[in-house]
Amino acid sequence: MESASGPWQDAVVRHSLAGRAETPVQALLLARLRDEGPLSKAQLADRLEVSRTTVGAEVARLTELGLAVEAGPAASRGGRRSTLVDLSPDIRFAGLSIGATGLSVGITDGRLSTLAVRHAPCDIRQGPEQVLALALETTRKLMAEVGVDGLSGAGVGVPGPVDFHRGVSVSPPIMPGWDGYPVRDVVSRDLGCPVVLDNDVNVLAVGEQHAGVAKNARDFLFVKIGTGIGCGIVVDGELYRGVDGCAGDIGHIRVEDFGPTCACGNTGCLEAFAGGAALARDATAAARSGRSDILAGMLTDGADLTAADVGAAVSQGDPVAVQLIRESGRRVGQVLASLVSFFNPGLIVIGGGVTAVGHSLLAEVRGVTYRRSLPLATGNLPIVLSELGADAGVIGAARMVSGAVYSSEPARG
Amino acid sequence: MESASGPWQDAVVRHSLAGRAETPVQALLLARLRDEGPLSKAQLADRLEVSRTTVGAEVARLTELGLAVEAGPAASRGGRRSTLVDLSPDIRFAGLSIGATGLSVGITDGRLSTLAVRHAPCDIRQGPEQVLALALETTRKLMAEVGVDGLSGAGVGVPGPVDFHRGVSVSPPIMPGWDGYPVRDVVSRDLGCPVVLDNDVNVLAVGEQHAGVAKNARDFLFVKIGTGIGCGIVVDGELYRGVDGCAGDIGHIRVEDFGPTCACGNTGCLEAFAGGAALARDATAAARSGRSDILAGMLTDGADLTAADVGAAVSQGDPVAVQLIRESGRRVGQVLASLVSFFNPGLIVIGGGVTAVGHSLLAEVRGVTYRRSLPLATGNLPIVLSELGADAGVIGAARMVSGAVYSSEPARG
User: Where does the Helix-turn-helix type domain start and stop, copy by copy (chains A, B) (predicted)?
Assistant: First the structure.
């Protein structure tokens, strides 16, 4: 239960918001209400293995803090009626999920149900000032729309490595200008609330775990195939970040000794063969060389094609586009097969923009992964598409900051 | 702290030994004494955050159970003298580490210091009856030698996948006759003590973590290059087994689409290129074809060469043998580079029989791994040889069963 654990201490900017758990029991109560919905005091006492007196006192304090409310009598369990407790209806979180070519922003309630979500195109290469300005403007508009004037917290995901504890981007290959940029503190100052920053793949994994297809999975991988390729790793229900916070950086696994140059400067990276940018590059080449009339027809004003164009060409039955998708799936499957042998996960979720092309990609990934892994590890291994799509980023980002706000750890900043 | 966790409940055969922790606090006390040595009651109370009264009562009970002793007054900390507590000097564990071509057996005290260790050659392909008979006979001889008539527990490692909870080997590629064999129960009946069974790589990883080079590592990989190749994964100080218990099976990661046939029946597996059996195969071919006079000189009676012969040829400066070792290291490094990008470990320990050839292998593994991984993940990543060698298996196996004996979970059988 991350709501009572240490790392948040470093990872969140301190704010003097009234609404914040003060004790580990309060934190556990809030996390239960978030994950299970309204519960009676008797149920809360059972779940937390503490006395009803303790629950009563802690709920009273949470009510004073504006985090919980008493919501009438609970259904009878035979004995004395217990009181139903719920999260305060005033709690609002924002989730800002920033990708390489688009961003999603959402406002959620305390249980992380989205009240409103908006998507906007963006170009991460324009640098942090411009991209964050767009994200923050979108957030404020959305807040006005749903009548929210203050947030309890905001989660932010960015498409590159992050120093989770310092809240900054670090040497992101596809994000010029972002290296060392204090994303967390800038967003926190602007929105006036605690902020947690993580990379987009971790945020997506957590979103799918909270409300999507990975809801009951303890050990799973979330593989994002977008402009780049990355992987969120969940071990025993918790995100695994690695000792330097860069676990899951599978886009730069070398799949060939030679090959196209990657955004990171090396050659042979998975991402340079199979990511959205690679698809766009290969599709553009196929269009210009006359190998595909359908792709050539999509070339306008001499601009390069996008991964979305490849998807459109697939849906029109273009064999070159289908072949590009298959080749991408084959490369991803090749790497996943190794990871399955190593990690023996219980589930693999595939998400990210490229999955818009859907089942032809999934079929190829599945085929290669199952064929090349040991039967013992794949006997019962579902490989499925993300259920929430872009909303996973919004929910995951909100989930991350809810873990900090519902925590009793002293925050910092 | 595995001494108080759930899985042991399934993984250990029940025995009516007197000596077994009865409460979580007793279990934590025993684990502290194992890992830190004698401690005063005051120190134990501090470490466990319980009252001195509780420590006094639990230590008294552990003394009755024959698990702990009071060892005189502790050094003064200023106030009232506290009493020093130690593990009972009567506690004895056995560690049985069975490899494909040899086994190691050791007897340890309660802190897992080895009192005696013996190595014997064996051939895992002779099947469980014969191999276990040898291991058990060696154990009994060793017990007689050091004057032990009863064990508090025994840990067993075998060179293949294990159903940890049922205590049986499962579909082990290089172990005909072992599939489904109830190793744990057979050893437990013979030695009359609780037994924990795991695969040899996990056992080696735990041994290195308890007493070797990985002593302070929380997230690390132990890579064994023996007849086969496997990997023990430690996440946040605990072994990670995967959802089916087969995590770390990296020997069967496919590194080429085609290649020599592996013991598992597939082609292109890492193990079939780089394991000890592959080295022996390639060295024999080189000897027979006249490519290496030194290797040819080692051929006797038409028998095949072994990986140890390759090591001997390397120390004589044979260029073919050196090339074989380099090639093996290159293949292992190629796979490790992917795993480093994925898992971002803090340490990689290389062990197993092939490491007897030492630094030429390590240099190659290091070179390829560092070159092919992202700088962020390798900036501070030591890749080192096992410190304990074969003793790691003995200590790791004893460590595993100590976790069960020092646990308060009801055991089963």
Answer: 28-72
Domain B93-207+391-405 homologous superfamily, CATH: ATPase, nucleotide binding domain (3.30.420.40)
Phi, psi of B242 (to 5 degrees): 80, 165
Using a CB-CB distance cutoff of 8 angstroms, which residues of chain B are in contact with residue A171? Answer: 376
Q: Same fold for the domain at A2-87 and the one at A92-207+391-405?
A: no
For residue B216, give the amino acid letter.
Answer: N
- Residue A250 has its nearest CB partner, among B248, B335, B341, at B341
Q: Are A151 and A191 in contact (CB under 8 A)?
A: yes
pLDDT digits (tens, 9 = 90+) for B24-43: 899 999 999 999 999 999 99
Cα–Cα distance list, A7 to A25, A69, A411 (Å): 18, 28, 10
Q: Within 13 A of A240's CA, how many CA atoms are on the CB side?
A: 30
Chain B: nearest CA to A375, how far in angstroms? Answer: 10
| pLDDT tens-digit map of B302-327 | 788 988 899 899 989 999 999 999 99
Q: Do B346 and A243 touch (CB under 8 A)?
A: yes
Quick: pLDDT tens for B203-249.
999 999 999 999 989 999 999 998 889 999 999 999 999 998 889 99
Query: Which of these, B357, B393, B335, lies nearest to B208 by C-alpha position?
Result: B393
Stretches in chain B below the pLDDT threshold 50: 1-10, 13-18, 410-413
The H or E element spanning position A73 is strand A68-73
Domain boundaries, given as residue ranges, for chain B? 2-87, 93-207+391-405, 216-385
- Looking at beta carbons, which residues of chain B come within 8 Å of A374? 246, 249, 252, 264
Q: What is the ipTM of this complex?
A: 0.87
Q: Please report how many Cα atoms fall inside a 13 Å half-sphere around the Cα of residue B342, on the Cβ side.
A: 25
User: Across the interface, which of B242, B342, B380 has its CB nearest the CB of A247?
Assistant: B342
CATH number among 3.40.190.10, 1.10.10.10, 3.90.230.10, 3.40.50.2300, domain B2-87: 1.10.10.10
Give strand ranges (E) for B189-339: 195-199, 220-225, 229-235, 238-239
Give the β-pairing of A153-158 and A195-199: parallel
Task: Say which CATH topology domain A92-207+391-405 has.
Answer: Nucleotidyltransferase; domain 5 (3.30.420)
What topology does CATH give the domain B216-385? Nucleotidyltransferase; domain 5 (3.30.420)
Nearest residue on chain A to B251, alpha-carbon basis: A341
**pLDDT for B79:** 66
Please report residues of B whose CB lies closer than 8 A to that of A221: none
Mean pLDDT of chain A: 88
Choose among B161, B246, B377: nearest Cβ to A249. B377
Contact A259, A267 (CB under 8 A): yes
The pair of three-digit structure tokens given for residue B50, joined into one six-digit string: 């319980």
DSSP structure class, residue A261: B
What is the pLDDT, as a whole number, of residue B5? 37
Radius of gyration of chain A (CA): 23
Backbone angles phi, psi at A197, to 5 degrees: -115, 135
Under an 8 A CB cutoff, do A376 and B241 touch?
no
In A, which residues are within 8 Å of B252 by CB distance? 341, 374
Total residue length of chain A:
413
Q: Which stretches of chain A sit within 8 Å of chain B by CB?
A: 161, 170-171, 218-219, 231, 233, 235, 240-250, 252-254, 264, 335, 337-339, 341-346, 372, 374, 376-377, 379-380
C-alpha span between A155 and A110 (Å, rounded): 13
* Three-state secondary structure call for residue A372: helix
Compute φ and ψ for A366, nearest 5 degrees.
-60, -50
Closest Cβ–Cβ partner in B233, B246, B344 for A376: B246
Instruction: Give the right CATH number for A217-385 from 3.40.190.120, 2.60.40.420, 3.30.420.40, 3.40.50.12780.
Output: 3.30.420.40
